Amino acid sequence: MKVQLRYLALARSGDKADAADISLFAPDQKTYEFLAQAVTAERVAEHFRPLASGPVERYLVPDLQALKFVVHGALNGGASRSLRSDNLGKAVGSALLRLEVEVDNPGQVTLVPTLDGHLPPGWPGATAGGARL
Amino acid sequence: MKTIRIGAGQGFYGDSLLPALDVARYGQVQYISFDTLAELTLAILQKGRAKDPNAGYAKDVVPAMKALLPLAREKGFRLVTNAGGINPSGATRAVARVAQELGLSGLRIATVTGDDILSRLDELTAAGADLHDKDTGASLSTVRDRLLFANVYLGAEPIARGLAQGADVVITGRTTDTGQFLGPLQYEFGWGPDDHDQMAAGILLGHLMECSGQVSGGNFSGDWWNVPDLERIGFPIAEVSEDGTFILTKAEGTGGRVSVETVKQQLLYEIHDPGTYITPDVIADFSRVRLEQVGPDRVRVSGARGRQAPPTLKALMGYSDGWMGEGYVSFCWPDAYAKAQRAEAIIRRRLEMWGVRPQEVLAEYIGVNQLHGGLSPAADPELSEVRLRVAVRTGTRDEAEKVAREFPPLLLSGPPTASAIGGTPAPRELLGLWSCLIPRELVEPGVKVVVEAVEEVAR
Lengths: 133, 459
What we know:
The complex is a heterodimer.
Chain A: E1 2-4, E2 10-16, E3 19-25, H1 29-38, H2 41-47, E4 56-61, E5 66-71, H3 92-96, E6 100-102
Antiparallel strand pairs in A: 1-6, 2-3, 3-5, 4-5
Chain B: E1 3-10, H1 18-26, E2 31-34, H2 39-51, H3 61-75, E3 78-81, H4 88-101, E4 108-113, H5 121-126, E5 147-152, H6 157-164, E6 169-172, H7 179-189, H8 196-209, E7 237-241, E8 246-249, H9 260-267, E9 277-278, E10 283-285, E11 290-295, E12 298-302, E13 305-307, E14 312-332, H10 336-353, E15 360-366, E16 385-394, H11 397-405, H12 410-413, E17 428-439, E18 448-453
Parallel strand pairs in B: 1-2, 2-3, 3-6, 4-6
Antiparallel strand pairs in B: 1-7, 4-18, 5-14, 7-8, 8-12, 9-10, 10-13, 11-12, 14-16, 14-17, 15-16
């Protein structure tokens, strides 16, 4: 089933010149390994095509169960020359959490907490909309 | 074993002063360090200096010092800040005036200069510095006549030197964010440039603390709803051992949270390659850092590794790069989004009618796609309300000014329910940033650390 990254990882982002710098944090080792397979630099570059003009670099940080992405050309020229409201890239990390990945088996991953206990739509124990049954 | 307690006072120009007061009163610290300079900040400060040659420093250093200097004297902590921006001497004069008003005679202020290279560019080129943009390879001549500031990132060494000369307050220009924190540690523990792992540990500490509340529960993307009392968030405090390991915590009684998760999120923030964090002091590797929760709101941090500092320093320059004009208007249900789209079309057409030749027009719909832009889902047709923002990039100020002016007329002559224009924002000058690497030996001999007692500073 397709699951948005918001259920599988936490994110924080910021800026450095015209690049958005995004960190993605897995809740545990198996989810980290899953994300390291599923969330490639190519997929992230494709996801950000409507926002970013440049290439994406990825860094794996297994000791912290984290992935880092540097998305170039993501800030409309950089904070001080950008027309965007989010000129500092603070919201870009959550934009990455919109990315959908294919989870074959719910046992592959651990979900991160959500405010209202919302689950991925179609997840065991969830309604079609994602509320808990 | 000797330990040092150091606290964070500010994470950017404009940060709240209240948490710094908690650090000062309840943190039992020997140092409070302030990081006031983001990449964008020098651009903001440059605009201030263009209007007033005495400006160009982070002005909130004045109220901060007014509140903290009496506590510093009472409790014996020292203050380190890069609030000097592009006018450290101006900041020192302002802080000295505060000290005089408070009757704190004898306060010793160190001023660090030598990071400003705007007037030295020809000399540096002649001496062999390559000023091409390190990312694009473009020649500086393409922007040279539009340059507004040019500063080299200095590290912790001049800060440590100021402290060694007995400064109670160290004020610098563009020293690194991390240097504000490494400087006191380098001074206290006598770490030198070859103590790579200790220096890397100090950089790690500085990196974790430089964004103030962002390591202690702020901007936390986990279960943020459970993070207590953010209105009284405790800024980070570190208890540092001589070997560079430290415990990150916050003052008793404050809100926020210091956990492995909150620390981890800051650890990787804005550093690009976690294995190669390049600073003037050391090249740090954060990829093998260990975080352990050792108590409530206490995280032990160890495992930073360092390599020899680079032979060059990064310079950041800003140049004038056109203008932005913007305006806002809100519309409400029914058909809120369609009305706002119509208003966008009207604004675009009106600018053409004025002969404005925009280089770029950006429309954002607040409540729909302001922050995620093209990655946002489609607008809900029953949207209760939406706010339109149109931002336009122009070559001249006059053109930019036309943008905001065309919004109020929408109230009477646009689609129905136009509301909440909220004024006409002044055009903003846009600044391009330029970075290059300059051999250290061309910069470091010009770095000056001057320590003066307050009475000696001219009013």
